[in-house]
Amino acid sequence: MSAINQGHVTSSINDNGIATIEFGHPLSNSLPGKILMLLAKTITDVGAQKEVKVIILKSAGERAFCAGASFDELISIKDLETGKVFFSGFASVINACRKCPKLIIGRVQGKAVGGGVGVASAVDYCLATSHAAVKLSELAIGIGPFVVGPAVERKIGMSAMSQLTINATEWQSADWAREKGLYAAVYPTVEEMDEAVDVLANKLARSNPDSMRMLKQIFWAGTETWDNLLKMRAAMSGELVLSDFTINAINSFKKK
Questions:
Q1: Backbone torsions φ then ψ of 173, nearest 5 degrees
Q2: Which of the ends of the chain has fewer CB neighbours closer than 10 A, N or C?
């Protein structure tokens, strides 16, 4: 089976109203277009359920959190419209998190690259392990973090976002990400992180749902234009991914 057609998104809700959404892919939890759209739909659908009090967003396994865009799918894009549709998948996930009326806790167990940093930035509260280094590698393959950029900038500020964007081949540590505000806390092990996620989720599940909904609206104030903004950014990436420079850069990365 092609890597483009692999991957999964699952969801569950426990008796306390804590929903868990998990995405996964055999290639370091990369995100093909089909998984992006399914993830966005799942976040929207789960967030609309009355019995859900809080959402935990996680990826499968105990290593990489998310490798970002699928290189196989990037290299298969041959026209602008296909490129716009693919990059709009990241926009849909970010906007689904933004508009979800429930608070979303991110669980980041390992490295996050590109779109993975965008996903971590789009949740409302993010916990990680010490292995959860971050990198915005888009410039190194001839594009840029145009779609995820607004979410990353909102979370860590323009200065830190520009550092990640310009130094596109270097990892920044989980502690760096915590200092900049991407992660609320960093834990030595997955087990310690999961305990903290569980404690926080149960506290929030006992909180006033109307208060949390109103707070979320305040947290995301000023992002009301993102439906259109992120579509415009997707078009920018969709155009650049067709260039010879980007095609050659992606093929070079795939050979490493």
A1: -70, 165
A2: C
SS3 21: strand
Written in H, E and C, the secondary structure of 91-128 is HHHHHHHHHCCCCEEEEECCCEECHHHHHHHHCCEEEE
The per-residue pLDDT for 191 is 97
Domain locations in the chain?
A: 3-255
Q: What is the pLDDT of residues 186-220, one digit of tens each?
A: 999 999 999 999 999 999 999 999 999 999 999 99
Kindly report the pTM of this predicted structure: 0.95
* Ranges of H-type helices in 130-243: 149-166, 174-180, 190-205, 209-219, 226-240
CA distance 61 to 59: 7
Give strand pairing partners of 24.
8
DSSP string, 167-178: STT--B-HHHHH
> Crossing angle of helices 33-47/80-99, nearest 10°?
20
Residue 235's SS3 state is helix
For the chain, how many helices (H) and strands (E)?
A: 10, 8
Residue 75's nearest CA partner among 32, 118, 117 is: 32
Contacts of residue 100, Cβ cutoff 8 Å, sequence gap at least 6: 43, 44, 47, 55, 216
Residue-wise pLDDT tens digits, 144-182: 999 999 999 999 999 999 999 999 999 999 999 999 999
Tokens of 44: 């929207």
Does the domain at 3-255 match CATH 3.90.226.10? Answer given as yes
